[in-house]
Structures are given as structure tokens and as C-alpha cells.
Amino acid sequence: IFFIHCNAQQSSDFVVPRIAPLTVCPVTGVYFRSEGLIQADGEPTGNFLCGVSPPQEIDKAIDDISELDYADHELWDEVIWPALYHRVPAFGEVKVKRSGSYLRKK
User: Fold this and answer.
1) Which residues contact 101 (CB under 8 A, 6 or more apart)?
2) pLDDT in tens, 56-98
3) Whole-model pTM?
4) Fewest beta carbons within 10 Å, which of 36, 74, 89, 106?
5) Which of these, 105, 95, 16, lies nearest to 50 by C-alpha position?
6) DSSP 8-class letter at 67
């Protein structure tokens, strides 16, 4: 899961989501939603949570639980970010603030 910040400004070229419900791409499974409430000045935080549950054929097995301390940034570069940018071009300017991996139990 990636915690991202979008500092892009609204423009005629693209719309920055102010508050986004959970949005899932039906093709890639990449999801995002806004994170945090409106700031004291009435503006949204610009923060979002996003990620994907990779298909089993590309999901990496872990040998040690400590490997979950690091998110798969290759997955970010190759799957998540392109899908986010395709859905919301303003996400071309996002910055990853934090990331982490979580164990999915069967």
C-alpha cells in the first residue's frame, strides 16, 4: 500500500480529485481513495492511499516476515503508477510519502 500526495493544481487540462471514494480499476485492480479529512482552511489534504493485490503469477513469495517492511516499488513503477495516471492525469505529479506491504492470509 502506498501513501501518496498530489500537489497538482486544478487546471483546464486535468481535475484533481478533492475527495475520492474507493475507486478500483476493473482492468488492473489498482485502487485509490482519498486519505484524511478537509484541512482547517477548507481545502482537501491531497493525500491518497493506493495499491493493488497483484495476480498470483507476479506476486512474490517471501522467505521471512521482515520482507514485508519494504513495499514492492517495481510494482509501483510498472503497474500502480501507470494505472493511476491513466485514470487521473493529475496523479502524474504524485509523491510517494510512505509505503508498506501486508501479509495476505489464505
Assistant:
1) 1, 67, 68, 69, 70, 71, 72
2) 777 767 777 776 666 778 889 999 999 999 999 889 889 999 8
3) 0.79
4) 106
5) 95
6) G
Q: What is the mean pLDDT of residues 45-52?
A: 91
The DSSP letter of residue 59 is P
Q: Write out the E strands in the chain.
A: 2-6, 23-24, 31-34, 47-51, 94-99
Angle at 73 between CA 70 and CA 79, to 5 degrees: 135
Question: What grid cell was written down for 105?
Answer: 492470509
Q: What does the chain come to in residues?
A: 106
Find the mean pLDDT for residues 36-48: 78
Sheet architecture: strand order including 2-6: 23-24, 31-34, 47-51, 2-6, 94-99
Strand partners, 94: 6
Burial label, 91 (beta-carbon count in 10 A; 0-12, 13-18, 19+): buried
